[in-house]
Design goal:
The protein is mainly alpha-helical and 259 residues long. 56% of the residues lie in helices and 5% in strands. It has a domain at 28-83 and 145-257: Lysozyme.
Length: 259
């Protein structure tokens, strides 16, 4: 009888855990984990310094860069697809192949050399108009396109620079883009009233995404954009992740596994 009760209890716990875990289905993907592990601390830092909702920031970065796997993000470190300001170096026009077997654009010459000619479809890629965060020697050029893939320190530095630009050059009270300016004023007022903890709530992160995208003259005009960003935030459990790291003092790995 006791064994039966224990078995029922165990089944209930397993069932409950499975149901709860299914809420964060994106956490099963290694590339998603690696991307957020590399950028979570910086998102929290920007929340504290510049009043940016961290879960929303990570969701947008994941969406815009394909979790860091898009070829523009890999080359430039620009994980938010930020356009270049006057004086910034832009990624120039490129002539790159698409690998039919890998189903992706490749830019590393070593990888290109390993592919058969039949596997590659070469195409001129238009000037991206995105800021190139590679070191000054290579930014804005066609040289060392693979640099950040081999130098993880430079990659981390470039990604951080991109995230910081979003907080300090895009979402500002002096922005010429109305929705960015209004979002900055709204966030600052919220923090003045409630403290930075408000930036870690699901409601504020969802509202921030809706405020800056999904309509004309915004971060991304497509109506589906906010839905996609919110879905990533939900399925990767980014609000919970940020709260676990910030308020429960968990390291990333512990927080990611805390489902």
């Amino acid at each position: 009888m006791l064994f039966k009760k224990l078995l029922i209890s165990l089944m209930f716990i397993l069932c409950f855990t499975t149901l709860y875990s299914s809420e964060f289905t994106f956490r099963k993907y290694t590339h998603v984990k690696e991307f957020y592990k590399a950028n979570s601390k910086e998102a929290i830092k920007l929340a504290e310094q510049y009043n940016i909702p961290p879960a929303a920031l990570l969701a947008i970065a994941g969406l815009e860069s394909g979790y860091g796997r898009g070829y523009v993000a890999q080359i430039t470190g620009n994980i938010l697809s930020l356009g270049a300001f006057k004086g910034d170096k832009e990624l120039p026009r490129l002539y790159l192949p698409y690998s039919k077997s890998k189903k992706m654009v490749i830019f590393d010459q070593n990888e290109i050399n390993r592919c058969s000619k039949e596997d590659l479809v070469w195409k001129k890629r238009p000037k991206s108009l995105k800021r190139d965060y590679r070191p000054a020697l290579y930014a804005g050029t066609t040289k060392k396109l693979e640099l950040l893939n081999y130098d993880k320190t430079l990659k981390h530095k470039s990604n951080n620079a991109c995230l910081n630009d979003f907080a300090t050059r895009w979402i500002t009270s002096t922005s010429k883009v109305k929705v960015f300016k209004e979002a900055r004023i709204w966030l600052d007022n919220l923090v003045d009233k409630h403290g930075t903890k408000i930036l870690f709530t699901k409601d504020v992160n969802n509202k921030f995404i809706a405020k800056i995208g999904g309509h004309p003259h915004s971060f991304n005009y497509r109506e589906t954009w906010p839905k996609k960003a919110k879905l990533i935030m939900k399925k990767a459990g980014l609000v919970k992740l940020m709260n676990d790291m910030q308020f429960k003092a968990m390291n990333f790995d512990s927080a990611w596994s805390n489902i």
